[in-house]
């Protein structure tokens, strides 16, 4: 299988910038730290374009479509469920939220749609 390790490493940096950008929404950071993280919104586009390119580059005719999708599911879904379970106590409140703007009341429908990756 052909690999592009240098480009694959760039995906980590794109994900880091997205993480930093999200931190801006939840924390009060000094301007010196916050200013470079403002470009994090570009990281989402960069991450998906780069990921698509790397997946296409490494694709060979030896792997069937069903095997490809099974592998992608096995790689993405377990970490998604772990992140979802960790996020529930952080971002959702079972009692009316206080002044924290990122805490939302529990919405069972949204949580159920998150399990099969169909959330909005």
Structural class: mainly alpha
The amount of beta strand, in percent, is under 5%
Spatial strand order of the main sheet: 1-2
Low-confidence stretches: none
What general outline do the C-alpha atoms trace? flat
Q: Report the sheet with the most strands, covering strand number, pairing sense and barrel closure.
A: 2 strands, parallel
Rg measurement, Å: 18 Å
Percent helix, as a range, is 55-70%
Number of helices: 5
Mean pLDDT: 81
Please tally the β strands and state the result.
2
Order of helices and strands: HHHHEEH
End-to-end distance, in Å? Answer: 35 Å
The total domain count is 2
Task: Annotate the secondary structure layout.
Elements: H1 5-26, H2 31-37, H3 40-58, H4 65-91, E1 92-93, E2 104-105, H5 108-114
Parallel strand pairs: 1-2
Helix pairs in contact: 1-3
Describe this structure in words.
The protein has helices spanning 5-26, 31-37, 40-58, 65-91, 108-114, and strands at residues 92-93, 104-105. With 120 residues, the protein is mainly alpha-helical. It folds into two domains: 1-62; 64-120, no CATH class. The radius of gyration is 18 Å and the shape is flat.
What descriptors fit this protein?
single chain, 120 residues, mainly alpha, 2 strands, 68% helix, 3% strand
Quick structural summary:
The chain is mainly α and 120 residues long. It is 68% helix and 3% strand. It has 5 helices and 2 strands, in the order ααααββα.
């Amino acid at each position: 299988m052909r690999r592009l390790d240098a480009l694959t490493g760039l995906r980590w940096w794109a994900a880091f910038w997205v993480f930093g950008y999200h931190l801006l929404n939840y924390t009060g950071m000094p301007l010196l730290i916050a200013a470079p993280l403002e470009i994090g919104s570009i990281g989402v586009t960069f991450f998906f374009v780069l990921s698509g390119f790397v997946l296409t580059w490494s694709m060979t005719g030896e792997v069937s479509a069903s095997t490809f999708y099974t592998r992608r599911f096995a790689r993405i879904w377990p970490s998604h469920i772990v992140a979802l379970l960790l996020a529930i106590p952080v971002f959702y409140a079972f009692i009316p939220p206080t002044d924290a703007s990122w805490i939302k009341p529990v919405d069972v429908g949204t949580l159920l749609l998150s399990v099969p990756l169909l959330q909005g």
